[in-house]
User: Fold this.
Amino acid sequence: MNKLFSLLVVAFIIFLFSCSNPQTSSLPEEDIKQNPDTLKLQFTNESESIEWAEEIEPSVTSDNKKKNSARFNSTRYSNAESASTLEPLELDEVYPAIPGLGILNLSDMNPSVISLADNFCTQLIKYSSQKTKANSQNLYNLMAKDRAFILTVFLYDNTTEQVFTDYLLAKGIKIGNFWQIPVRLYEKNGYLDIKLHCADTTSGWKVDQITYGVFIYE
Assistant:
């Protein structure tokens, strides 16, 4: 019994001895509290022992940036160049139009009808500024047979006060052997919209009818 007690006492003494001499590199807490610079000194020493990688030369990084930029620009140009080789989409052609008058594309119309409308408007402008017999006769020559009275009424209604200075033709409509052509006659104070009804006669294309609205002041 006494022997067992002696062994326990010896073991306890060895345990206390081992705890009072720790095998560690840590700084004692009391030393840190009494001398705070000790921890700072340890950190500095350990930092100085670290091997840091050398800084890349600025010229090298600059060259890499230039190469990357050039490669990016080249790629963008290449894509744009490739896109330009693609076949364009087939889109319907769009022609200008004037509200109240119509589309200004005359490509589908009979050239002889367009020529008649142009000639009529040109002679009408001459007559509205100079009401001579010669100018009026040039207009009557463009009318179909037995249609002279239609021109007479038209001239009386629209050239007594107005002096037309310009005109504009719009796309016409073909109805049987007739073409109906919208025309806008311009005057310094406004405009007048008319329709020339052109007929294919034995004497060629002639004006068979003239319809019109009221003069629009602007």
Remarks:
- The CA atoms of residues 37 and 49 lie 19 Å apart.
- Helices lie at 2-19, 29-34, 37-48, 58-84, 111-129, 133-140, 148-158.
- Residues 21-27, 74-86 have pLDDT under 50 and may be disordered.
- The first strand starts at residue 97 and ends at 98.
